[in-house]
Amino acid sequence: MRFDVLILGSSSATPIYGRHPTAQLINVNEQLYLVDCGEGTQVQLIKYGVRSNRIKHIFISHLHGDHYLGLIGLISSMHLVGRKDELHIYGPPGLKEIIELHFLHSQTELRYSLYIHTTQDSTNNVVLENENLRVSTFPLSHRIACTGFRFDENKRLPAIDREKVTTIGIPTALLPLIKRGHDYTAPDGTVYRWQELTIAPAPPRSYAYCSDTVKTSSYLPYIQQVDLLYHEATFLDEMRDRAAATYHTTALQAAEIAAEVGAKKLLIGHYSARYKDLKPLLHESKSVFGATQLALEGKWYSI
Amino acid sequence: MRFDVLILGSSSATPIYGRHPTAQLINVNEQLYLVDCGEGTQVQLIKYGVRSNRIKHIFISHLHGDHYLGLIGLISSMHLVGRKDELHIYGPPGLKEIIELHFLHSQTELRYSLYIHTTQDSTNNVVLENENLRVSTFPLSHRIACTGFRFDENKRLPAIDREKVTTIGIPTALLPLIKRGHDYTAPDGTVYRWQELTIAPAPPRSYAYCSDTVKTSSYLPYIQQVDLLYHEATFLDEMRDRAAATYHTTALQAAEIAAEVGAKKLLIGHYSARYKDLKPLLHESKSVFGATQLALEGKWYSI
Fold first, then answer.
1. A14 pLDDT above the threshold of 90
2. What pLDDT score does A278 carry?
């Protein structure tokens, strides 16, 4: 099953050097989810060949412009190109009011159903569950209300060990039960445990998105053991004070967090406009957490 | 004196083929004015080497997203890069409320003074006058309240005919008076009319911006005799009905308008996403009004 993330925007508040404000597209089993939607996201989607009407769910972390100012344009364009499917947006208090005010003044009546779900930065909440995954919010620590998002792949059923069930001669009709944990008793009374008749599935994968936040221990419980951690790394550690003052993180701190929570891989982004060259951020993070990659626009990262 | 317009965005509502939503930069004697501010305008300004903090006045025609969704991002970035100069925005009712709601939720307190002036689409009003020009709004006819903008260069004083005043021996101290229309009486009683001592200035130039609107006669009085008319030309004339239904104009109609008002030159833009190739729009307009040019992003047009 596919579980990948495409970086659409990697800059912090000021777009520069061809970098755009934050947005990411997540593909889980060919279903598309958008996380944050900075200004210009609809153009980035076109650039990277993504049909925006395939997106059914959009998650907004907080109401700083570089994380959501592309939203009204995107949902308006979806309307203009004839979208019929419903769209769900998950975002902080205030987002609904902002969207409604825009559409009031533009006199836009969307041709599709738009559902705006208000998130809370005080708790850890599951906001979406479907056949593929579970998405939950968790509180980050930023200047204004801000949540992270964790994407957990559903636990998959084991696969049937075809060779073994054929040898034993188990009726096909019973295989779905065996996959779900029922043992098999043969006509001669022999009991075959379901575990020996199946092949264990790959463990479910997880992705956590943390932008924007100062480094604190408060959100670490929610991102334990993720396969891929996206964490903002706005500054180099020599600017640690500035990072704290602006409720942001340094590349070194992002690496420390990845190590502390036992993440398998780390993806850093949300780069300050002061860094034209990103290599120093990568090197700093790798000095603490080797499996770091830079979030680069247009690149897919496998989870 | 410089009086030029730079196209930053040429598309209608859906950005495509590398075209961006509407925005234009006007340079009048090295002072910069922005007209409309579609999503991504701040990135377009960077691309074309314009320091956004040189802009002191922004004019917004109406509250369809493709004409103003880049505004919050732009004025936020001005704040982030340390702007101190005041900024004036002229736009329709509702714009102030939208901007204030964004900044309420992002908890942004601008470090510079922002003045939002509400325009009315029911009248023709001068909204700005300074040493170089006069800007007035006039009502267009769109689905929602929408104004055009007319930029009129101030009448310039004549230049002194240096050769003549030297030959006659007119004291330098009197030259400013002569420029302003005072005759000169020589010691021998000869009267020299100021007209014979000066060289007439070039007539003041004018630029009119019409986007978005259906073709009507109601706004023609306000754009008479302009040197350069920018007029939207969303569709080819074969889609005249669709243009009328959506309160837009065809390339042919834009040309008819340019001819009717006696414009010297016509610039067409706001192209529908259905036209990858713009040549048919240009040819159609030129068939009626020869001095037509396509608005192309990144190109400066002299007024």
1. no
2. 98
**Residue A101: which of B15, B92, B98 has the nearest Cβ?**
B98
Q: For position A156, what pLDDT does the model report? A: 87
Q: In sequence order, what are the beta bridge partners of B301?
A: B5
Residue A116 contacts B, CB cutoff 8 Å: no
Q: Does A106 touch chain B (CB under 8 A)?
A: yes
> Which positions ≥6 away from A133 have C-beta within 8 Å?
A28, A151, A152, A153, A154
Which domains does chain B carry?
3-156+202-302 (3.60.15.10), 159-199 (no CATH)
- Mean pLDDT by runs of 10 across the 303 residues of chain B is 96 91 97 98 96 97 97 96 96 97 96 97 94 97 97 94 94 94 94 95 96 96 98 98 97 98 98 97 98 98 97
Residues A249 and A237: their CA atoms lie apart, in Å, by 8
Q: Are B121 and B146 in contact (CB under 8 A)?
A: yes
- How many CB atoms lie under 10 A from the CB of residue B88? 17
Q: How many CA atoms lie within 13 A of B246 on its CB side?
A: 20
- What residue in A sits closest to B42 (Cα-Cα)? A15
Residue of B nearest to A47 (CA): B18
H or E, element range at B17: none
Q: Do B101 and A104 touch (CB under 8 A)?
A: no
How do residues A23-68 score in pLDDT, each as one tens digit?
999 999 999 999 999 999 999 999 999 999 999 999 999 999 999 9
Query: B4, B36, B66, B188: which is the annotated catalytic residue?
Result: B66
- Shortest Cα–Cα distance, A133 to chain B (Å): 30
User: In this structure, are residues A175 and A163 in contact, taking their beta carbons and an 8 Å threshold?
Assistant: no
Q: What are the chain A neighbours of B42 within 8 Å (beta carbons)?
A: 15, 39
Q: What is the ipTM of this complex?
A: 0.88
Provide the residue type at A224 as one letter: Q
State phi, psi for B209 to the nearest 5 degrees: -120, 115
In chain A, whose CA is at the least distance from the CA of B63?
A: A106
Pairing status of strand A147-153 against strand A133-139: antiparallel
Check residue A82 and give its pLDDT.
Answer: 93
Question: How many Cβ atoms sit within 10 Å of the Cβ of residue B226?
Answer: 25
